[in-house]
Amino acid sequence: MKLTIAALGRLKAGPERELVDDYLRRASQTGRPLGLGPAGEVEIDNRSLKTKSAESRTLSEALPEGARIILLDERGKTLTSPQLARQLAAWRDEGVRETVFCIGGADGHDRDALPKPHLTLSFGNLVWPHMLVRVMIAEQIYRAASILSGSPYHRD
User: Can you say how many angstroms the Cα of residue 25 is from the centroid of all Cα atoms in its chain?
Assistant: First the structure.
């Protein structure tokens, strides 16, 4: 099952870009033998988009048909890393071909302009910069693959 981060905006060269690239590379290497991967990213240029609705419509247009959609949103569910790993494994086992983690613009998502998500995920009540959210979800994708592979990367 392909794992993709779809994010509005572009990460410039720097530590965040390096971390995202590293975690997605590691997730692909760890996950492929498990049927998870490749792990990748789609960056959506939102500089000309003036409203949250326009951003969400553009994000929606980038989503592959039939993909499981995970919206990253502060009003979503908080999951443990093993719970997220189990959810991804369940979808993989159901034959889902792709899961997309959607990161909206600065004002969040316009739910009316997006397909109904299969999961809305939160990193807690704190507000996180979008560039860090991208690093955090890339790391969680890698962590999920590591958990499912039996790696000691995650300790209970």
Answer: 14
